Amino acid sequence: MKRPTLEAVAARAGVSRATVSRVVNGQSTVGPEIRDVVMRAVRELGYVPNSAARSLVTQRTDSIALVVSEPPTRVFSDDPMFSTVIRSASVELEAADKQVVLMLSGTAQSHARVERYIASGHVDGVMLISMHGADPLPAAITRMGVPAVSYGRPAVPVALPYVDNDNVGGAEKAVKHLLDRGRRRIATIAGPQDMIGGQDRLTGYRTALRDSDRRSIVAVGDFTRESGAIAMRQLLEDDPQLDAVFIANDLMAIGAIQALRHAGRTVPDDVAIVGFDDIEAARYTDPPLTTVRHPIIEQAAAMVQLLLSLLEGDENAASPVILPTELVVRESA
Question: Which residues contact 101 (CB under 8 A, 6 or more apart)?
């Protein structure tokens, strides 16, 4: 069978081809009665708009790039943050009848490829995830004039709307909880210091300790389970008497608990542990992990809604969105 054309739909509906084109392209200049007639003809004939022709008319592709500034080994690892953000953003975009284009940009070559793809007009907007301090993409995309938002405050000074969670306040809650439990030597395993999440959670830790007589004891990981174990062993060597650790994400906390067990320390009797994120695995560690809930699903959904507002020309959409965090107390502290 031949594919139904705009002309066939127009003949069935008794309207002009231009009217059918305005209806299927979502323009608001057609009255509701005429729109209903046209859509009935579309359904009866099984008409499917030609996406290439439609893009020429609307100047839109209905595709959104989801750019993750990490290598595949990191994105497709045991860190559930990436899969949760990708899944949540995809669900929100699907509800808005948009297509997701997942792009990884963990190397200089992939940065260049992503820039070329976006500059060529293949997508209507861009969402950036897991950016590092030296990442050139935020500035490049801003220069292109393509609507873009960031999952988290950008690490570089660039005019890019973003959605973040209260990293500083969440870390303060975690450390104050340990202080309230009478812990004296409170260390931290911070996240990467070229990422805003790592920087802000370290700031929150130091802020909470500032008014107490405790000193800062800091090791740095890279948000992976292995780095948490390595950093925990380093902390035990540096200060064998430490009795609490705030850890900048749950995966590193899980690695730290394993390192403490191998060192003959019990949690929480010898060392109390508080993580950050509240991933599903936090409920099933031994003991279950006290942590700060980072609203990952809500943050991803808010990021999509912010971008959709930008695409519709909402001038207020440039304001950052900061979501609250919540301390979830379990047995590890």
Answer: 63, 64, 65, 66, 122, 123
CA 212/CA 193 separation, integer angstroms: 24
Residue type, 217: I
Q: Give this prediction's pTM.
A: 0.80
Domain count of the fold of the chain = 3
Distances (CA, A) of 13 to 5, 34, 266, 275: 12, 9, 75, 61
117-148 pLDDT, tens digit per residue, is 888 888 999 999 998 887 888 888 888 888 99
Answer whether 246's CB lies under 8 Å from 215's CB.
no
Closest CA to 260 of 246, 244, 271: 271
Taking the alpha carbons of 29, 33, 34, 39 in that order, is the dihedral positive or negative?
Answer: positive
CATH code of the domain in which 129 resides: 3.40.50.2300
Please check whether residues 201 and 287 belong to one and the same domain.
Answer: yes
Is 14 found in the same domain as 108?
A: no
Q: Coil, strand, or helix at residue 297?
A: helix
Residue 105 has pLDDT above 60, yes or no: yes
Distances from the Cα of 208 to the Cα of 112, 201, 249, 270, angstroms: 41, 11, 17, 22
Tell whether 331 is covered by a domain.
Answer: no
In the predicted model, is pLDDT for residue 58 greater than 50?
no
Q: Extract the tokens encoding 164.
A: 């973040």
